[in-house]
Design goal:
Distance between the termini: 101 Å
Low-confidence stretches: 197-201, 420-432, 452-457
Shape: globular
Number of helices: 9
Helix content: 10-25%
Radius of gyration: 32 Å
Mean pLDDT: 84
Strand content: 35-45%
Number of strands: 32
Largest sheet: 5 strands, antiparallel
Oligomer: single chain
């Protein structure tokens, strides 16, 4: 596990004849990768055959995230592809949470809560903050991860809270997801919790996960998820969802309990109509022998800021890619949307494989007047230029709650791109034709003026 900004990986080919061998490298999206590439000449071995090697440089972040790279060796007799990936086993984070310092709260009217993720690997980790079980990004900041003596990662995230919120016993939560190790950690802190002893076995945590737009758009249903964590035993657990203000139970399905780090956790899900989710509030009620009284959490759609409709732009392959005659990339840019929950899918006449698609997370754009908006981009790699040249059409489908019918799409194929290029060429040709006409007329006028002047000079000389 390297702490360097970049690391070098390589592959060796040996025992081949004849001498000529060509190396190339591809990244996880099957795009050509040449960063820091060096290829060494074939060397004659004592056996009479040849050996050769090649190397590239990759970022430490990419390698630590277990992104694969492919070494391709092409020889006249056969071709070989070698996959290189970091095979170090993932390590789940140890998550701790610290309450704000009392002196800061009383002297500055605010304080900082710290969430520390320690000794995890690799460095692909997600951190979210909740305020009274509703996700927020206000007054939060996450440092860049560092490495410890073992080469594993340490990360700190911070949330500034007001003295007013703290005194009102607002519950602040740090949610940590580490997909490589399958770890999902949840930590709470509030004024009353800070007064008690630190979390110990039996301190059962309950929190809700709202439905994603994707599930609502594709299934027209809204799954409500209640997570019950840090139980010493799942025996005697009773979980039910209700519409707030009603005692009629909704059909609640409990997953099998998961045992990890000495405690059990369970997800309880109820599915409601998408229209109900838009207007109603729901409540999860939890009973357990270790609880002195039932725990309740509510879940409702955040209708604070008015939704903003996304702008969708679809870009064709760059001419440099087309000139290489290998793979080509389509880019779908989605910007100026709110809220951040959005769906982006690629479609074609053939099924689009997920391994050729890379979609970023929604990223916060600069905003004013307190209004937020997000952007993201998604790329589709077409592995063969022959597939693109066949004229097959590709579509970027975007789903968002602010769109008419909640979806829009943009399509592209080689014919459309070719027409665009032809129109550009025609504009240039028309411009050149006009310019050529003016040049010819200018030259003719010069020739005419010179001829008239010559005749006048001869007329004066002869006296005629």
């Amino acid at each position: 596990m390297s702490q360097e900004p970049t690391i070098t990986i390589g592959c060796l080919a040996k025992d081949f004849l004849p001498e000529t061998l060509n190396f190339s490298w591809n990244d996880k999206s099957n795009n050509s990768f040449t960063n820091g590439m060096k290829t060494y000449k074939s060397i004659l071995q004592s056996s009479g055959s040849y050996a050769a090697s090649s190397q590239i440089q990759v970022t430490g972040e990419s390698w630590n995230n277990r992104d694969p790279y492919y070494c391709v060796a092409k020889h006249s007799l056969n071709n070989k592809v070698l996959k290189l990936v970091n095979d170090v086993k993932p390590v789940s984070p140890i998550v701790t949470m610290a309450a704000p310092v009392k002196e800061d709260l009383y002297m500055n009217n605010n304080g900082t809560i710290v969430c520390i993720m320690n000794n995890y690997y690799p460095n692909n980790i997600k951190v979210k903050w909740l305020k009274n079980y509703v996700e927020t990004t206000l007054n939060t900041m996450t440092d860049k991860a560092n490495t410890n003596a073992d080469g594993n990662f340490v990360l700190s995230s911070f949330m500034t809270v007001s003295k007013k919120d703290w005194d009102e016993d607002t519950i602040f939560s740090c949610v940590v997801e580490h997909s490589a190790s399958g770890s999902f950690e949840f930590r709470n802190v509030s004024k009353s919790l800070a007064c008690e002893s630190s979390a110990s076995p039996g301190d059962i945590h309950v929190y809700g996960i709202p439905p994603s737009f994707e599930s609502i758009f594709l299934n027209k249903k809204a799954p409500l998820t209640c997570v019950i964590a840090n139980m010493m035993s799942a025996e005697g657990l009773d979980v039910s969802w209700y519409e707030l203000g009603s005692d009629i139970k909704l059909k609640t399905i409990l997953d099998d309990p998961i045992y990890k780090d000495g405690a059990y956790s369970i997800k309880a899900t109820a599915t409601v109509c998408a229209d109900d989710w838009l207007t109603k509030t729901f409540e999860c009620r939890v009973k357990h022998p270790d609880l002195t009284s039932p725990k309740k959490i509510t879940l409702a759609k955040d209708n604070g800021q008015e939704p903003q409709t996304p702008t969708v732009l679809l870009y064709p392959p760059h001419q440099d890619e087309l000139n290489r005659k290998e793979s080509v990339t389509l880019t779908c840019m989605v910007k100026h949307f709110y809220p951040e929950d959005i769906l982006v899918k690629w479609t074609s006449s053939d099924q689009v494989e997920d391994r050729y698609v890379v979609t970023t997370k929604p990223m916060l754009e600069s905003y004013s007047s307190g209004k937020k908006s997000y952007f993201l981009y998604s790329t589709l790699t077409i592995p063969s230029i022959e597939t693109w040249n066949s004229g097959k059409s590709y579509t970027c489908v975007v789903g968002h709650e602010s769109l008419p019918l909640q979806a829009t799409q943009r399509s592209i194929d080689k014919t459309i791109v070719h027409i665009l290029y032809i129109e550009e060429d025609d504009d240039i040709d028309n411009l050149w034709t006009t310019a050529s006409t003016f040049i010819v007329l200018f030259l003719l006028s010069l020739f005419y003026s010179a001829t008239v002047t010559l005749f006048k000079v001869r007329f004066i000389e002869t006296g005629e």
